[in-house]
Design brief:
Blueprint: H1 11-22, H2 26-36, H3 49-52, H4 57-67, H5 70-83, H6 87-98, H7 101-104, H8 107-118, H9 129-159, E1 161-164, E2 171-174, H10 175-178, E3 184-186, H11 197-204, E4 214-215, E5 233-237, H12 244-256, E6 266-269, H13 272-275, H14 284-291, H15 300-303, E7 308-312, H16 339-348, E8 356-361, E9 376-380, H17 385-395, H18 399-411, H19 413-418, H20 422-437, H21 448-471, H22 475-499, E10 503-504, H23 506-511, H24 516-525, E11 530-534, E12 540-544, H25 547-561, H26 567-577, H27 584-592, H28 596-606, H29 616-627, H30 633-645, H31 650-661, H32 671-683, E13 688-692, E14 713-717, H33 728-736, E15 744-746, H34 753-764, E16 773-775, H35 783-794, E17 802-804, H36 811-822, E18 831-833, H37 842-852, E19 860-862, H38 869-880, E20 889-891, H39 899-911, E21 918-920, H40 927-938, E22 946-948, E23 979-982, E24 987-990, E25 1008-1010, E26 1018-1026, E27 1030-1036, E28 1056-1062, E29 1065-1070, E30 1073-1077, E31 1086-1092, E32 1097-1104, E33 1107-1115, E34 1122-1128, E35 1133-1135
Parallel strand pairs: 5-8, 5-9, 6-7, 7-8, 13-14, 14-15, 15-16, 16-17, 17-18, 18-19, 19-20, 20-21, 21-22
Antiparallel strand pairs: 1-2, 3-4, 3-9, 10-12, 11-12, 23-24, 24-35, 25-34, 26-31, 26-35, 27-28, 27-34, 28-29, 29-30, 31-32, 32-33
Helix pairs in contact: 1-4, 1-5, 4-5, 5-6, 9-12, 17-18, 18-20, 20-21, 21-22, 21-28, 22-25, 25-27, 26-27, 27-30, 29-30, 30-32, 31-32, 33-34, 34-35, 35-36, 36-37, 37-38, 38-39, 39-40
Keywords: ATP-binding, Cytoplasm, Leucine-rich repeat, Nucleotide-binding, Repeat
GO cellular component, one term: cytoplasm
GO molecular function: ATP binding
Length: about 1150
């Protein structure tokens, strides 16, 4: 065929292009289209495969000319013909192009650049050794720049547009024109949240964003929070539909347009939805070449000397096992293996450790990668409450309509929370606009199920009208075919929800009886529900527009296809078995569909459809019974949402009435009402300033159902609530929550032990944790627990300012660990309390080093009730006297300090008089001379010190609690008649009735006796019991004496507290509440009682030859003196 080129008209170029296209056979044309989707020249954009696949030759010529110029279109064709080895055709086209100046103007430059890439010059030694190497280095640099430009050109073409409407046919919109900087926050160091995303939305919707560490999309590889170590792997998490893929697209686009991150030479975007399609074995270099064929001329040694970034988008869509534990180690980038082995070794750093990695995922899937391989976690967040309102006001020009919609959405907590996701705002706007502006029948939706059903009704109706206009189809025919396909999609949704699949391929559709062509047609007219789109590399995939749509349709499928009378209760049981709650929202929809109002809506959606009858009241009662069980907080909260879908809010309304009346009593609440109270407090818009769990304390531990409320509290007082290490899991979830306002946590007098402290410490180092005050007094913490705490305190992320470890057993070694961390610039601890920790002078030397440190933040130190003695004071004073020491408050009460120790302190205060403001030396033995030495320091005008030397005396030099020992005698006038006193009224025995005279202070029904002495200040006494058992405690004098009421019993009322001693167990009683002590008597029958009246603390100890073992500490604000008291069983005795 002869061709001619007429320069007088552009038409001739178009005809020329079309003529050559016509010379291609059908098979050649198919290959030509495929190659069009691959980069040919870096200046020219490849055409999406999906857009050219079905075009005939004329339309293809039009598209090529519209995307390129006429000349460039011909140049592209010439290049492709050569690549296809159609040399005769290419030669003839080249001759025609030579006759057309406008076609050949840019060809030379393009071919010249291509030569740089493909042909390697001969750098021989004849060129001169050094000169040859320099030329080779320059050639390699130019080659790298050119190939980087090629990749940038390719990726720019793929990423610069987003499609509105149907992904494959919608109108492209430039991403740069519509992109708004997404709200990305620092997300911790790998703490994985496997809650259902709706629960995460519920907590995130409360987050005060001013406290977040925000990250710009282009800065995710920059270390945060003063971190110095480089970042290799970043994990960005976010719930479905929140904008993870758009963030990736914008990052790549800015790099390709050379706006950011130009230190990176190559970006390889490998979405998991595309990786799922890879079959067989690959080497890493082959995998790169598969996704970036432009780089095939690069060998591995050459390519990987550059800085590269791998982006793995959509970890939640991954269908590979990612077996990090069992996969073999792989180090060779040129050696083939399975894709799973390649990816796990790339992430672990065995392959290409110099590469950067960016992985995106929904939160529940982040546990597929062990936290140790993730160096930085970021999170993409949704709309704040203000942004939700802004969305609706921008969406509608009619502001009255916008206000009405906002008011309605706010009236339903469930709807308002879901609007945290932008796509749900769109769903709500779609539904509510129709209902508020058109003559739609039925009530306004108040539940999630009603909202989604209305949405599908409107979408199918709108698309039915559109489809009939476009395809001239009769309404009934379309309705039936649309209904049939919707049910097939529901089946697809259900079976893949079970598997955790969100992305579907043609094979998945076929397996669910969905014709691919039919799905494409339906997708084209109902893209708001189910859409067909293309991966980054043009492979066709299908998905629901949002996970919640899939969950709704899955519930719809089960509701319509399962006629079992137990369907709903079985659904409840299945959802409760889920560890991460992935069926929570599905269950809400399933229950919501069973209501009469939903059945009416289903008729509008699907026509006359047979549905089984279900008893909503019976189901609601079943859920209430489940709520009474010991479920996790997340599952319990979802069950309350389920009750809301069923229209049963009786439990929460009951609790709300209790709260409003101000007469809420823990004893009056059932287990279900306790859970309802937790739900009400958690769902409240108001944060709790103080949550005091003691107000709800019950011996049966039902109060522990309220622990999740900590998430919504600024201060949580959980002390003396019989908490154990197992409860720390709930607390750590609150500490890690990015929405928690928690700043102060008191866990004192809980049996947490080192295991519980280890759990808490891991959360303290999380970036989301903003806790400033932590009290762990009397929690059985040893050196091991201190080690965990010091790791948290060293964390750059820790905000902890106050730590109370009093009444624990850290030992000198534990305090040594804490002292070392005080010298770390990262540590922010200002107040440390280690009173009554059995410390010796050995800890003082390391504490002095911390005080000398210029970077130490410590301002208050409490060492009270430790036998530091004068030798310890000498060591500690060395730190106090240093000018770097900024300590302001020092408590040394009861530390066995004498005149010698006072001399050391006085010398230190003269050396550094300006900082210390308060010095507590009470309950020591400074003597007159020691007091005189310290008083002389106070005369210095620069000294602002206030000093306390009360309750001093020689007795204070005795070791341990013996320094507070007091002599007691039993009061015969209080003794019950079946108790006999002996040994100078220091022994009481239960047995035969005694002829005591009547007395108003005598117990007439309870076998008890009080001591004569009233106690205040610090006092210690011991009692030894024998026989079956006894109660030993203290009480106000006002305890009742007559009758069998609890007002008389030691520990059975709010006036007293007692330790119940038995051969194999201890119990503590106060105000009718019983606390089991985990420590056993182990043969010891002696107990010690220590009262620190001023501090409001009453402590019980087991006394043995090994010393004292702390059993329990009762805390209160004492308002009057306390009297020791004893209850004795028959045939038992107690001696003071």
């Amino acid at each position: 065929m002869a061709h001619s080129c007429n320069e007088e008209t552009q038409t001739s170029l178009t005809v020329l292009l079309l003529d050559y296209l016509k010379e291609l056979s059908d098979e050649q044309l198919k290959e030509f289209k495929l190659r069009l989707s691959l980069p040919v020249y870096k200046e020219l954009k490849p055409l999406p495969k999906g857009q050219v696949k079905d075009l005939d030759r004329t339309d293809l010529a039009d598209m090529m000319i519209s995307c390129y110029s006429e000349a460039d279109a011909l140049n592209v064709m010439l290049k492709i013909l050569k690549n296809m080895t159609l040399n005769d055709l290419a030669e003839r086209l080249n001759e025609d192009l030579q006759k057309c100046p406008q076609a050949g103007s840019e060809l030379g430059d393009i071919l010249e650049q291509n030569t740089i890439v493909s042909e390697r010059p001969n750098f021989s030694s004849a060129q001169g050794g050094k000169g040859g190497r320099e030329e080779e280095e320059k050639w390699q640099k130019d080659r790298g720049k050119l190939m980087s430009s090629t990749i940038k050109c390719t990726l720019k073409q793929k990423c610069e547009c987003v499609f509105e409407g149907k992904a494959k046919e919608g109108q492209p919109t430039l991403l740069s024109e519509i992109y708004t900087e997404l709200y990305i926050t620092e997300g911790g160091t790998g703490g994985v949240n496997d809650e259902h995303e709706v629960r995460q939305i519920e907590t995130a919707s409360k987050k005060r964003r001013t406290e977040d560490t925000t990250v710009k999309c282009n800065d995710i590889f920059k270390p945060l929070c003063g971190r110095k170590t480089p970042i290799r792997t970043v994990l960005t998490k976010g719930v479905a539909g929140i904008g993870k893929t758009v963030s990736v697209q914008k990052f790549i686009l800015d790099w390709a347009e050379e706006k950011s991150n130009q230190d990176i030479h190559f970006i390889f975007a490998l979405p998991f939805r595309d990786l799922n399609l890879i079959k067989g074995e690959y080497s890493l270099i082959e995998l790169v070449h598969h996704f970036a064929p432009d780089l095939k001329s690069f060998e591995s040694a050459e390519l990987f000397r550059y800085k590269v970034l791998f982006i793995f988008d959509g970890l939640d869509e991954c269908r590979l096992p990612l077996d990090f534990q069992n996969n073999e180690s792989w180090f060779d980038v040129t050696k083939k293996t399975s894709l799973d082995v390649l990816l796990t070794n790339l992430i672990k750093g065995n392959l290409l450790p110099s590469a950067l990695l960016w992985i995106t995922s929904r939160p529940a899937a982040t546990n597929h990668i062990p936290a140790e391989w993730i160096h930085q976690v970021t999170e993409i967040r949704g709309f704040s409450d203000a942004q939700k309102e802004e969305y609706f006001r921008k969406r509608f020009s009619d502001q009255r309509l916008a206000s009405r919609i906002i008011t309605h959405v706010k009236s339903s907590r469930s709807l308002f929370i879901m609007c945290h996701i932008p796509v749900f705002c769109w769903i709500s706007a779609t539904v509510l606009k129709r209902l508020f502006t058109e003559n739609e029948r039925g009530k306004i939706p108040k539940t999630l199920t009603e909202m989604y059903t209305h949405f599908l009704i409107f979408q199918t109706r709108f698309n039915s009208e559109k489809y009939m206009r476009e395809y001239k189809t009769k309404p009934n025919k379309y309705f039936e075919s649309g209904k049939e396909l919707l049910l097939k999609l529901a089946k697809l949704a259900f079976h893949n929800l079970e598997k955790g699949n969100l992305i579907f391929y043609e094979q998945d559709l076929t397996e669910n009886d969905i014709d691919v062509t039919e799905a494409s047609v339906y997708s084209g007219v109902c893209t708001e529900v189910f859409k067909e789109e293309y991966g980054l590399y043009q492979d066709k995939v299908y998905c629901f527009v949002h996970l919640s749509i899939q969950e709704y349709l899955a519930a719809l499928y089960m509701f319509l296809s399962n006629s079992s009378a137990d369907l709903l209760m079985t659904g409840v049981d299945q959802a409760l078995k889920s560890k991460n709650g992935h069926l929570d929202l599905y269950l809400r929809f399933l229950l919501g569909l069973s209501t009469n109002s939903s059945k009416g809506l289903l008729k509008r959606l699907l026509g006359q459809t047979r549905t089984s009858s279900h008893n909503s009241k019976k189901t609601a009662q079943y859920i209430k019974e489940k709520i009474q069980e010991n479920l996790s907080a997340e599952r319990t909260i979802n069950l309350f949402h389920c009750l809301n879908e069923l229209g049963d809010n009786s439990l929460t309304e009951e609790v709300q009435r209790y709260l409003n009346s101000g007469s809420l009593s823990a004893e009056d609440l059932s287990p279900a009402q306790f859970s309802a109270l937790a739900f009400v407090l958690l769902m409240s818009d108001e944060e709790l300033d103080v949550f005091d769990l003691k107000k709800f304390f019950r011996s049966d531990n039902e109060h522990c159902r309220l622990l999740p409320v900590v998430r919504n509290s600024k201060t949580a007082l959980l002390n003396s609530c019989d908490l154990r290490d197992k409860h720390c899991k709930v607390l750590t979830a609150a500490l890690r929550s990015n929405s928690s306002p928690l700043r102060e946590l008191d866990l004192s007098d809980s049996d947490l032990q080192d295991s519980g402290v280890k759990l808490l410490s891991a959360a303290l180092g999380d970036s989301h944790c903003k806790l400033g005050i932590l009290r762990l007094a009397g929690c059985r913490v040893t050196e091991e627990g201190c080690s965990s705490l010091t790791s948290a305190l060293r964390s750059n992320l820790s905000h902890l300012r106050e730590l109370d470890l009093s009444y624990n057993h850290p030992g000198d070694s534990g305090v040594k660990l804490l002292s070392a961390v005080l010298e770390d610039p990262s540590c922010k601890l200002e107040k440390l309390q280690v009173g009554r920790c059995e410390l010796t002078e050995k800890c003082c030397e390391v504490l002095a080093l911390a005080l000398r440190s210029n970077s130490s933040p410590l301002r208050e130190l409490d060492l009270s009730d430790n036998d530091l003695q004068d030798s310890g004071m000498k060591l500690l004073s060395a730190g106090l006297g240093d000018l770097h020491c900024k300590l302001e408050i020092l408590r040394l009460s009861g530390c066995r300090v004498t005149e010698e120790g006072c001399s050391s302190l006085a010398l230190a205060l003269r050396s550094n008089p300006s900082h210390l403001r308060e010095l507590d030396l009470s309950y020591n033995h400074p003597g007159d001379s020691g007091v005189k030495l310290l008083s002389a320091v106070l005369e210095d005008h620069s000294c602002k010190l206030e000093m306390n030397v009360d309750h001093s005396g020689e007795c204070r030099t005795r070791p341990g609690l013996q320094k507070y020992s007091c002599q007691l005698t039993l009061d015969p006038n209080t003794a019950h008649r079946r108790l006999s006193l002996s040994g100078g009224n220091r022994k009481v025995t239960g047995g035969e009735e005694q002829p005591y005279p009547d007395h108003p202070e005598r117990f007439d029904s309870w076998g008890q006796v009080l001591c004569r002495e009233s106690l205040t200040g610090r006092c210690y006494w011991e009692a030894e019991w024998d026989g079956y058992g006894a109660r030993i405690g203290m009480t106000y004098k006002g305890i009742e004496r007559k009758g069998l009421s609890d007002d008389c019993g030691l520990g059975a009322n709010d006036k007293s507290c007692s330790l119940s001693c038995h051969p194999d167990s201890y119990f503590v009683y106060h105000n009718k509440n019983l606390t089991v002590i985990p420590i056993k008597p182990s043969g010891s029958r002696r107990v010690g009682v220590y009262l620190d009246w001023g501090a409001g603390a009453l402590s019980f100890y087991r006394v043995s030859s090994r010393g004292l073992t702390h059993l329990y500490r009762f805390t209160s604000s004492f308002t009057e003196p306390l009297y020791p008291g004893i209850y004795v069983d028959r045939n038992s005795s107690v001696s003071l």
